[in-house]
Amino acid sequence: MQTTPTPATNTIATPEPTPTEAPTPTPTPVFQPHSVEETKPEKYGMNTDIMVNGEIVTKYSRTDKITFEEGFKYTDVKGIITFRGNNYRDTSGVYGTQNILQKKFFEEPLWKQKTGSMQTMAGDGYWSGCGWTGQPLITEWPKSTRAIMNMYDWAKEQETLVEVIYATQDGKIYFYELETGKVTRDPINCGFTFKGAGALDPRGIPLMYVGGGDRNPSYTSPRVFVISLVTNEILYEFGHDDPFAKRSWCAFDSSALVDAETDTLIYPGENGVFYFIHLGTKYDEAAGTLSINPSDIVKWRYSGSRSNVNNKFWFGMESSAIAYQGYLFFPDNGGYMMCLDINTLELIWVQDVLDDTNCTGVLEVENGRPYIYMSTSFHADWRADGDGTAPIPVWKIDAETGEIVWHTDYDCYTVSGNSGGAQGSLAAGKGSLEDIVYIPMGRTPGRWKGLLVALNKKTGEQVWALELDHYIWSSPALVYDEKTGAGYVIQGDSEGNLFFIDGLTGKILDTFQMDGNIEATPAIYNNILVLGTRNCSIYALKIE
């Protein structure tokens, strides 16, 4: 019998694997703000003072340190609770998701409400309707919170309710249900015109912070109000006729920030004072009680070499401050852009932004480094004759040093009391629009015209510019279709036109005609936009 030979076994040694080293993660750059030669505060003759509980001190160090996190972590509250949404001011006043199929507004408003007007302090005119910045606040209150609020019974009993809270120029704060426009509670009459947006507490505590924008007809000075939205009562007022201020004008158009961890209210004023107030908040929802006991009142003031010289380049802040980690970034009425350490109140750097700066910038972190996009206005007869033009730059600023990365200029006209340039605030694109920053330019290329500008974030080059027949003060809002990611810009003008615009091309896709000048800035909750006009109307529009 033949035997089949067994094949020889060739043993091949298995090679030892060469271990692959795990890639070393790129560390997040440590943010260490400092000045360089062009941004040293002494270059601009800056002097600062600090007052703690009524006493001027030479040095300050906060015991409970304040550190703001990323903008999206500012609040867990559903809605828009401060101007442009958070401490980065980067939501453009939009919350939730949008389903955009038709790329237009529904042809009829969901609802429309009327407001009023208030005589100016001089008695020669009226603050009417909703003005600059005029962004409404919108939030969904839990049913348990509504149960203790001074709301109408029907509003308390709804399973869900999203409330529109609108501080307007007739001195009242109005309250509406978002879907229907039905009034949810009596208006609060504070007696001072409100130009700014106000703010709600990011902890969901029913507190509102809002500042008056002008003296009232009795010539009483405006101030900040802290209001309980449980009882609709004013709990605290501050900022009026402050002897610490170097400017007597004490309007408060900025929108506040609150540091939730330390219970601290942060509020800039047109009197040139920054206020930091420990609120001493006590809130017991089960008991239906809310109180504050303000303490540790800290004030910071400044002056520069050109501040208030010949009644130009005034002290004071109208822009809403940006907060990044332990620092604030803000421009002033005198054309200084500043970085302030919140915990020591040391002025870190100063940049020259040329003119009375009222717009609010936007902060973005790019490759681990924060940058601020900012612009300014043209105040008649400061830099140039009011009959001529002045350059209005858009800047990209390194938040660490204050250095200018790039600038792109536009020549703008102005009108006394109704400035040209960037009065509306900037909006930084995300997703499909992530390479673009949007800026509304008033009074260019003609005195009564407007220009919505889209610039490349990396280079400052113009992507597109949409020329409008009427000047613009309102800020753009950016919305994105939740399915396709396509991005759109919503922009109002001074003739009541609200434009729906392709964010990549600048093409107008739809226009809704409102009944008056749109100075105010919209807020958008899911597919519903809320916006008021100077003609005393508030609209709610459906985005389709």
N-C termini distance: 89 Å
Beta-strand fraction estimate: 35-45%
Instruction: Quickly count the helices.
Output: 2
What is the gyration radius calculated from CA atoms? 26 Å
Structural domains: how many: 1
Main beta sheet strand tally, sense and closure = 6 strands, antiparallel
Give the overall average pLDDT.
95
How would the global form be characterised? Answer: globular
Would you tell me which CATH topology applies? Methylamine Dehydrogenase, Chain H
Characterise this structure.
It is a single chain. The protein has about 550 residues and is mostly beta strands. The protein has one domain: Methylamine Dehydrogenase, Chain H (7 Propeller). Helices cover about 0% and strands about 35% of the residues. It has a six-stranded antiparallel beta sheet with strand order 2-1-21-18-17-16, with no helix packed on it. The longest helix is centred in the N-terminal third of the chain and has 5 residues, at about 155. It is globular. The chain starts with about 45 loop residues before the first strand and ends with a strand. The model is unreliable at about 1-15 (pLDDT under 50).
